[in-house]
Protein backbone atom coordinates (compact mmCIF):
# COMPACT_ATOMS: atom_id res chain seq x y z
CA UNK A 1 0.00 0.00 0.00
CA UNK A 2 0.94 3.63 -0.50
CA UNK A 3 -0.04 6.52 1.75
CA UNK A 4 -0.20 10.08 0.46
CA UNK A 5 -0.09 13.18 2.65
CA UNK A 6 -0.71 16.57 1.10
CA UNK A 7 0.16 20.03 2.33
CA UNK A 8 0.35 23.58 1.05
CA UNK A 9 -3.21 24.60 0.32
CA UNK A 10 -4.70 27.84 1.50
CA UNK A 11 -6.19 31.19 0.58
CA UNK A 12 -4.48 33.45 -1.93
CA UNK A 13 -5.43 36.48 -3.99
CA UNK A 14 -5.78 36.24 -7.74
CA UNK A 15 -2.38 36.47 -9.39
CA UNK A 16 -0.66 34.91 -6.40
CA UNK A 17 1.16 31.62 -6.02
CA UNK A 18 0.92 28.48 -3.94
CA UNK A 19 2.96 25.31 -3.81
CA UNK A 20 1.33 22.00 -3.01
CA UNK A 21 3.35 19.05 -1.74
CA UNK A 22 2.43 15.39 -1.53
CA UNK A 23 4.63 12.93 0.31
CA UNK A 24 4.27 9.25 -0.48
CA UNK A 25 5.19 6.51 1.96
CA UNK A 26 4.87 2.76 2.05
CA UNK A 27 5.46 0.75 -1.12
CA UNK A 28 6.62 3.73 -3.15
CA UNK A 29 8.66 1.48 -5.46
CA UNK A 30 5.36 0.35 -6.98
CA UNK A 31 4.43 3.86 -8.15
CA UNK A 32 4.57 4.56 -11.89
CA UNK A 33 3.14 8.06 -11.92
CA UNK A 34 1.87 10.74 -9.59
CA UNK A 35 -0.45 13.62 -10.20
CA UNK A 36 -2.80 16.26 -8.94
CA UNK A 37 -6.53 16.33 -9.47
CA UNK A 38 -9.03 18.96 -8.38
CA UNK A 39 -12.72 18.98 -7.66
CA UNK A 40 -15.35 21.62 -7.03
CA UNK A 41 -18.83 20.95 -5.58
CA UNK A 42 -21.08 19.22 -8.05
CA UNK A 43 -18.29 18.65 -10.55
CA UNK A 44 -16.27 15.62 -11.48
CA UNK A 45 -12.71 15.38 -10.30
CA UNK A 46 -10.40 16.51 -13.09
CA UNK A 47 -6.75 15.83 -13.75
CA UNK A 48 -4.66 18.97 -13.36
CA UNK A 49 -1.15 17.61 -13.93
CA UNK A 50 0.72 14.34 -13.82
CA UNK A 51 4.30 13.15 -13.95
CA UNK A 52 5.70 9.70 -14.59
CA UNK A 53 8.73 8.21 -12.88
CA UNK A 54 10.51 8.85 -16.18
CA UNK A 55 9.74 12.55 -15.88
CA UNK A 56 7.07 12.85 -18.56
CA UNK A 57 4.54 15.51 -17.63
CA UNK A 58 0.99 16.24 -18.68
CA UNK A 59 -1.19 19.28 -17.94
CA UNK A 60 -4.79 20.22 -18.46
CA UNK A 61 -4.96 23.09 -20.96
CA UNK A 62 -6.31 25.58 -18.43
CA UNK A 63 -3.14 25.47 -16.31
CA UNK A 64 -0.46 25.21 -18.98
CA UNK A 65 2.13 27.91 -18.53
CA UNK A 66 0.98 28.63 -14.98
CA UNK A 67 1.40 25.35 -13.07
CA UNK A 68 4.47 23.14 -12.86
CA UNK A 69 4.56 19.60 -11.53
CA UNK A 70 7.81 18.10 -10.28
CA UNK A 71 9.20 15.42 -7.98
CA UNK A 72 12.13 15.16 -5.63
CA UNK A 73 15.14 13.01 -6.44
CA UNK A 74 13.78 10.09 -4.46
CA UNK A 75 10.56 10.24 -6.52
CA UNK A 76 8.51 9.98 -3.32
CA UNK A 77 7.28 13.56 -3.14
CA UNK A 78 5.40 15.41 -5.84
CA UNK A 79 4.99 19.17 -5.98
CA UNK A 80 2.60 21.43 -7.80
CA UNK A 81 3.84 24.99 -8.18
CA UNK A 82 0.84 27.15 -9.01
CA UNK A 83 1.49 30.66 -10.31
CA UNK A 84 -0.81 33.35 -11.66
CA UNK A 85 -3.70 31.78 -9.80
CA UNK A 86 -7.23 32.58 -10.90
CA UNK A 87 -10.52 32.35 -8.98
CA UNK A 88 -11.50 29.45 -11.23
CA UNK A 89 -8.57 27.47 -9.79
CA UNK A 90 -10.45 27.33 -6.50
CA UNK A 91 -11.04 23.67 -5.64
CA UNK A 92 -10.03 20.83 -3.40
CA UNK A 93 -6.80 19.45 -4.79
CA UNK A 94 -6.08 15.74 -4.44
CA UNK A 95 -2.78 13.98 -4.83
CA UNK A 96 -2.88 10.73 -6.78
CA UNK A 97 -0.44 7.89 -7.30
CA UNK A 98 -0.77 5.09 -9.82
CA UNK A 99 1.20 1.90 -9.82
CA UNK A 100 1.22 -1.85 -10.02
CA UNK A 101 1.49 -4.30 -7.17
CA UNK A 102 1.23 -8.07 -7.34
CA UNK A 103 0.26 -7.79 -10.99
CA UNK A 104 -2.66 -5.46 -10.32
CA UNK A 105 -3.10 -1.79 -11.07
CA UNK A 106 -3.38 0.33 -7.96
CA UNK A 107 -4.69 3.86 -7.52
CA UNK A 108 -4.09 5.85 -4.35
CA UNK A 109 -5.49 9.19 -3.16
CA UNK A 110 -4.55 11.78 -0.61
CA UNK A 111 -7.07 13.39 1.71
CA UNK A 112 -7.31 16.60 -0.31
CA UNK A 113 -6.25 20.16 0.38
CA UNK A 114 -8.37 23.26 -0.20
CA UNK A 115 -7.11 25.97 -2.52
CA UNK A 116 -9.13 29.18 -2.54
CA UNK A 117 -8.30 32.05 -4.88
CA UNK A 118 -10.04 35.32 -4.14
CA UNK A 119 -10.74 37.90 -6.82
Written description of the protein model:
- The termini are far apart.
- The mean pLDDT is 95.
- The protein is mainly β and 119 residues long.
- The chain contains no helices and 11 strands.
- The strands form 2 sheets. Strands 2, 4, 5, 6, 9, 10 and 11 form a 7-stranded mixed beta sheet that branches. Strands 1-3-8-7 form a 4-stranded antiparallel beta sheet, with no helix packed on it.
- The radius of gyration is 14 Å and the shape is globular.
Task: Give the topology, please.
Elements: E1 2-7, E2 10-13, E3 18-26, E4 31-39, E5 46-52, E6 57-59, E7 67-71, E8 77-82, E9 91-101, E10 104-109, E11 113-118
Parallel strand pairs: 2-11
Antiparallel strand pairs: 1-3, 3-8, 4-5, 4-9, 5-6, 7-8, 9-10, 9-11
Distinctive features:
0% helix; 119 residues; 11 strands; mainly beta
Strand count, sense and barrel status of the largest sheet are:
7 strands, mixed
The total strand number stands at 11
Number of helices: 0
Straight-line distance between termini: 40 Å
Provide a brief overview of the structure.
The protein is mainly beta and 119 residues long. The chain is built from no helices and eleven strands.
Amino acid sequence: QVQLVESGGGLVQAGGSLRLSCAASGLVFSINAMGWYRQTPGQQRELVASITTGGRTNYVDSVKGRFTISTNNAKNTVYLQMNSLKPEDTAVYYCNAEGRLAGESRNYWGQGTQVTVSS
